[in-house]
């Protein structure tokens, strides 16, 4: 027995379930007032700053953060509940989600107190959107091949180079980006990259949209030409960004967004199959729900273990690997099961709207935020194979 | 039937009676710790079980054993430790352990692929206890689908695991005034035994006016579906344990086996296969563990229990199929031999996924429930806890 993989059976607290009721009531109001339609493909790729402000007003952005930065000092499992309720209905969270999940925690850890007091409260109010500048034209999964440069000058750092596939850059106030500050060393090719906070309103930045095959315009190319940023916008150790991937990665990898991106298809499949499906439909639906339930329990478990101070990094990678593959396969499997559904007893109007969208976004689900191949390499390392 | 004197409870236990008043297999120092720190018994039960299996049921040793003599030695140790009746309360002759502890024991047992009816006896003891019937000493299995008339059992039960090895069968029978839990001696039944995928023996049990040793109305305390759910949860744990062991076997082999001048673990294709095996193992252990926790805390077999247990059996069963295939591919020809330990696990994984309802059977039932509940109740059910 390896004993290396552990998933504690974590349950959500009564407080978290009370919060769930509040979030559901909020969502019901939003749907009723036309804020969004859970049975339709999200408009503008789910980017809606007004919605984000209303979520912020409820205290549900940065909700685990310290109160002095605008947070609510609530638990990660409470944040989990908010995230999964939003994802389950396809709520337009894109204007705040990146900052809430990733950028805020990075600032919390590495930014100066002035920057934290300036930016974090704005994030929690849903007024400040972030994007992540990692990939470049010649550097994707191989993150440490990044070429975009930050050159130290008397006034700060000067940025030159190009980031690409930058989701939401055109709507964002800030980027947290990875830039080369030194060449890699012979014995450590990860050396030489640094993380920076970049105000996207500064001169020297050109943002060009890239339309995706799904019809969305969330992708961008971001070109930096002699863009000067202040010295204190360096986040963490110079040349040492590779050390700064920490426990937060497990949160990023194991959240409910890693298996709920196409969940609407499953709900509409159930509607399509109707109350008394034949054996094929029922068996297929049952399997999908069993798989979803298992993923959710794994995901809740990782979040609960993180909250308890454990470091389930291998488990987090496994959740992302299994979860992203499942949500990618879901539209195709639902399509198969819906094909023979009885059109009289079932209602497939919504299904026919949401399925094409889900099929079109499916390819990206095992690429964004770390490909399947990269994840499996990480898991293999966790098993001691590399 | 009254419990034998040797398993009578000493009555001096604290709030965690498990193992108290009994001899723990060759672990006097553990026993001392148990007395001194009752709060940490979860780990001690697992540690004790692991130690016992390691010493008496090392899979490689069993695989090469000339005869089945080891079975009696292991069984005696398990029985004397109280593990075989973990789910039977003290006053019915058992150890009175928690549901969660019993499942942990079964996960360890699965990781050793043992061919003794520990899981079946645990389950039988649980079934008997639901109707207030004391458990006898010795090995037991469970059966259902038989009929009770005029105080005698008749009918045929198919796929009764390891029945030929068991002195008693705990039966959930249909009676004229509702279901009854019935204890019978196996010797009074007719057994038609086939080896089954696992090679552990699977019997078709036929009874003709068999006189029970004990019987009691099940009332509302246990139904055929409850028994299926418990059996499914039991097998899910054995599969999770076996997959953990298979992952260990495959990873170790990949690190040792050299091909093309380096350990095969260095090849990306092999790494990714093993990463998938780890994922399947993780899914099985997480789903099974969550189901156990739910059963441990549940007062009735409600919708949440159904979702948890059905999902665990489905997902662990899927993982069994996927995981066994990956492990065999990694081990190549040696894994296909009788002398290698891998087949002890993979044949049982294939057998266990069929017992107490296959993936397809549970998925059908679960899907029908979800469909009947309607599309808009799907998420509230999944996110109920």
Helices and strands in order, then pairings?
The complex is a heterodimer of chains A (386) and B (385).
Chain A: H1 14-32, H2 49-57, H3 76-88, H4 94-110, H5 113-124, E1 130-133, E2 149-153, E3 156-164, E4 174-180, E5 193-199, E6 205-210, E7 219-229, E8 234-235, H6 248-254, H7 263-273, H8 279-307, H9 313-339, H10 349-361, H11 372-382
Chain B: H1 28-36, H2 41-56, H3 59-64, H4 69-81, H5 99-110, H6 118-130, E1 140-149, E2 152-161, E3 168-175, E4 178-185, E5 190-194, E6 202-210, E7 214-217, H7 224-256, E8 258-259, E9 262-263, H8 268-297, H9 303-331, H10 342-354, H11 359-373, H12 378-382
Parallel strand pairs in B: 1-3
Antiparallel strand pairs in B: 1-2, 2-6, 3-4, 4-7, 5-6, 8-9
Helix pairs in contact in B: 2-4, 2-5, 5-7, 6-7, 7-8, 7-9, 7-10, 8-9, 9-10, 9-11
CATH topology of the largest domain in chain B: Butyryl-CoA Dehydrogenase, subunit A, domain 3
| Total domain count of chain A | 3
CA-CA gap between termini of chain A:
19 Å
Estimate the helix proportion of chain A, in percent.
40-55%
Which class do the helix and strand fractions of chain B yield?
A: alpha+beta
Q: Would you give an account of this structure?
A:
The complex is a heterodimer of chains A (386) and B (385). Chain A has helices at 14-32, 49-57, 76-88, 94-110, 113-124, 248-254, 263-273, 279-307, 313-339, 349-361, 372-382, and strands at residues 130-133, 149-153, 156-164, 174-180, 193-199, 205-210, 219-229, 234-235. Chain A starts with 13 loop residues before the first helix and ends with a helix. Chain A is globular. Chain A has 11 helices and 8 strands. Chain A is α+β, with helices and mostly antiparallel strands and 386 residues long. The mean pLDDT of chain A is 94. Chain A folds into 3 domains: 14-128, Butyryl-Coa Dehydrogenase, subunit A, domain 1, CATH 1.10.540.10; 132-240, Butyryl-CoA Dehydrogenase, subunit A, domain 2; 248-382, Butyryl-CoA Dehydrogenase, subunit A, domain 3, CATH 1.20.140. In chain A, a hairpin with an 8-residue loop joins strand 6 and strand 7. With 385 residues, chain B is an alpha+beta fold. Chain B has 12 helices and 9 strands. Chain B has helices at residues 28-36, 41-56, 59-64, 69-81, 99-110, 118-130, 224-256, 268-297, 303-331, 342-354, 359-373, 378-382, and strands at residues 140-149, 152-161, 168-175, 178-185, 190-194, 202-210, 214-217, 258-259, 262-263. In chain B, the strands form 2 sheets. Chain B has a 7-stranded mixed beta sheet with strand order 5-6-2-1-3-4-7. Chain B has a two-stranded antiparallel sheet with strand order 8-9. In chain B, a hairpin with a 2-residue loop joins strand 1 (140-149) and strand 2 (152-161). Mean pLDDT of chain B is 89; it is low at 1-41. Chains A and B meet through helix 3, helix 7, helix 8, helix 9 and helix 11 of A and helix 7, helix 8, helix 9, helix 11 and helix 12 of B.
């Amino acid at each position: 027995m390896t004993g290396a993989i552990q998933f504690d059976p974590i349950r959500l607290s009564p407080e978290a379930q009370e919060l769930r009721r509040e979030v559901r009531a909020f969502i019901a109001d939003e749907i009723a007032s036309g804020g969004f339609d859970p049975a339709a493909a999200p408009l503008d790729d789910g980017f809606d700053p007004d919605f984000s402000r209303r979520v912020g007003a409820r205290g549900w952005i940065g909700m685990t953060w310290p109160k002095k930065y605008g947070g609510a000092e609530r638990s990660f499992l409470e944040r989990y509940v908010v995230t999964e309720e939003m994802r389950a209905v396809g709520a337009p969270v894109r204007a705040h989600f990146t900052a809430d999940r990733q950028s805020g925690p990075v600032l919390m850890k590495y930014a100066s107190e002035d920057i934290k007091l300036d930016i974090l409260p704005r994030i929690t109010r849903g007024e400040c959107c972030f994007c992540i500048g990692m990939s470049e034209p010649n550097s994707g999964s191989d993150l440490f091949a990044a070429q975009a440069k930050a050159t130290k000058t008397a006034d700060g750092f000067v940025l030159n180079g190009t980031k690409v596939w930058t989701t939401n850059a055109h709507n964002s106030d800030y980027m947290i980006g990875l830039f080369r500050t030194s060449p890699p060393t012979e014995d450590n090719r990860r050396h030489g990259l640094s993380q920076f906070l970049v105000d996207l309103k500064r001169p020297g930045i050109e943002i060009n949209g890239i339309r995706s095959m799904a019809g969305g315009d969330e992708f961008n190319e971001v070109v930096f030409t002699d863009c000067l940023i202040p010295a204190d916008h360096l986040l963490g150790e110079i040349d040492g960004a590779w050390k700064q991937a920490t426990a937060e990665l497990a949160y990023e990898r194991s959240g409910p967004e890693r298996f709920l991106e196409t969940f609407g298809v499953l709900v509409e499949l159930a509607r399509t199959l109707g109350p008394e499906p034949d054996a094929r439909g029922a068996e297929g639906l049952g399997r999908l729900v069993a798989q979803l339930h298992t993923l959710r329990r794994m995901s809740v478990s990782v979040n609960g273990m993180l909250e308890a101070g454990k470091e389930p990094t291998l488990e987090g990678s496994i959740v992302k690997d299994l979860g992203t593959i499942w949500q990618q396969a879901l539209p195709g499997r639902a399509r198969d099961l819906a094909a023979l559904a009885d059109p009289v007893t079932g209602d497939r109007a919504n299904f026919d709207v949401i399925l094409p969208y889900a099929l079109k976004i499916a390819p990206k689900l095992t690429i964004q935020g770390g490909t399947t191949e990269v994840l499996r390499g990480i898991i293999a390392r966790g098993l001691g194979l590399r | 039937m009254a419990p034998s004197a040797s398993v009578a409870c000493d009555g001096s236990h604290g709030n965690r009676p498990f193992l108290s008043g009994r001899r723990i297999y060759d672990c006097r120092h553990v026993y001392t710790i148990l007395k001194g720190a009752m709060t940490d018994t979860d780990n001690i039960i697992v540690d004790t079980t692991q130690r016992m299996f390691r010493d008496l049921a090392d899979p490689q040793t069993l695989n090469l054993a000339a005869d089945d003599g080891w079975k009696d030695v292991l069984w005696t140790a398990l029985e004397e430790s109280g593990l075989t009746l973990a789910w039977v309360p003290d006053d019915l002759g058992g150890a009175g352990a928690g549901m969660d502890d019993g499942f942990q024991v079964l996960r360890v047992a699965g990781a050793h692929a043992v061919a003794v009816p520990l899981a079946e006896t645990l389950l039988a003891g649980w079934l008997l206890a639901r109707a207030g019937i004391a458990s006898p000493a010795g090995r037991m299995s469970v059966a259902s689908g038989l009929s009770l008339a005029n105080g005698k059992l008749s009918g045929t039960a198919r796929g009764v695991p390891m029945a030929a090895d068991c002195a008693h069968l705990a039966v959930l029978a249909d009676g004229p005034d509702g279901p009854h839990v019935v204890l019978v001696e196996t010797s009074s039944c007719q057994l038609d035994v086939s080896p089954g995928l696992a090679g552990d023996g699977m019997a078709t049990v036929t009874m003709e006016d068999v006189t029970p040793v004990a019987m009691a109305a099940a009332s509302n305390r246990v139904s055929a579906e409850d028994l299926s759910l418990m059996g499914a949860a039991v097998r899910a744990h054995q599969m999770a344990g076996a997959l953990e062991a298979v992952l260990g076997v495959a990873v170790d082999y990949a690190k040792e086996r050299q091909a093309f001048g380096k350990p095969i673990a260095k090849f990306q294709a092999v790494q990714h296969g093993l990463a998938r095996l780890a994922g399947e193992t993780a899914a099985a252990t997480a789903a099974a563990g969550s189901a156990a926790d739910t059963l441990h805390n549940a007062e009735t077999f409600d919708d949440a229990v159904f979702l948890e247990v059905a999902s665990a059996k489905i997902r662990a069963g899927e993982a069994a199929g996927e995981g066994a295939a990956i492990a065999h591919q990694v081990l190549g020809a040696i894994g296909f031999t009788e002398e290698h330990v891998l087949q002890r696990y993979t044949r049982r994984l294939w057998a266990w996924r069929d017992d107490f309802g296959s993936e397809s059977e549970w998925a059908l039932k679960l899907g029908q429930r979800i469909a009947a509940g309607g599309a808009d109740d799907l998420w509230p059910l999944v996110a109920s806890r």
